[in-house]
């Protein structure tokens, strides 16, 4: 019976991941929001200025990279690389960024597709903000499920 419960827990987590995305919704990463796919939400985003400072975060309905007329499909702008998917305007994969110029103002927007992914962890993607998610909790939970499965599912 415990094996069935563990299987249902794993399946519910997998199914839930496909139903939407949870994103940080403020620059400080103190607020988060669940954005359901059935309402059209596809990705999380983070915006940056030309100095790499984070200027915004939230949920996005954008599904393809570099489709806006203001997108610049160059490799580098102000030292920031564009996604390699930009020239073909491909579907946003795990994490993709585009550079835009709006009214002579540079803006970098990075999109991603997994829970709380818009934390800005890399200079490649944008700012160098610290990661708030606790990987030890995630790893401990996964290890606990595996050990329970081995203990009760023989």
Key terms:
about 150 residues; alpha+beta; 5-stranded antiparallel β-sheet; two-stranded antiparallel sheet; 2 helices
- In N-to-C order, the SSE pattern is HEEEEEEEEEH
Number of strands: 9
Count of alpha/pi helices: 2
The neighbouring-strand order within the major sheet is 4-3-9-8-5
Coarse structural class: alpha+beta
Largest sheet data:
5 strands, antiparallel
- The helix content, as a percent range, equals 10-25%
Query: What is the molecular shape?
Result: elongated
Poorly predicted segments: 9-17, 123-137
**Straight-line N-to-C gap:** 11 Å
Share in β-strands: 25-35%
Chain-averaged pLDDT: 77
| Rg | 18 Å
Can you describe what's shown?
The protein has helices at residues 2-17, 135-152, and strands at 20-24, 32-36, 43-48, 54-60, 71-72, 76-77, 80-81, 95-102, 105-112. It has 154 residues and is an alpha+beta fold. The strands form 3 sheets. It has a 5-stranded antiparallel beta sheet, with no helix packed on it. The chain has a two-stranded antiparallel sheet with strand order 1-2. A two-stranded antiparallel ribbon has the order 6-7. It starts with a helix and ends with a helix.
Write the layout of secondary structure elements.
Elements lengths: L1 H16 L2 E5 L7 E5 L6 E6 L5 E7 L10 E2 L3 E2 L2 E2 L13 E8 L2 E8 L22 H18 L2
Short précis:
It contains two helices and nine strands. The chain is of the alpha+beta class and 154 residues long.
């Amino acid at each position: 019976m415990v094996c069935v419960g563990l299987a249902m827990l794993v399946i519910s987590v997998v199914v839930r991941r496909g139903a939407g995305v949870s994103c940080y919704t403020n620059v400080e990463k103190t607020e988060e929001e669940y954005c359901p796919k059935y309402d059209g939400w596809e990705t999380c985003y983070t915006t940056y200025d030309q100095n790499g400072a984070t200027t915004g975060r939230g949920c996005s309905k954008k599904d393809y990279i570099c489709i806006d007329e203001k997108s610049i499909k160059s490799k580098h702008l102000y030292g920031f690389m564009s996604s390699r998917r930009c020239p073909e305007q491909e579907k946003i994969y795990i994490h993709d960024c585009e550079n835009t110029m709006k009214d002579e103002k540079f803006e970098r927007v990075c999109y991603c597709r997994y829970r709380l992914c818009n934390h800005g962890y890399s200079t490649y993607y944008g700012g160098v903000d610290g990661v708030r998610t606790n990987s030890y909790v995630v790893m401990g939970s996964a290890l606990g499920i595996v050990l329970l499965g081995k203990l009760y599912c023989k």
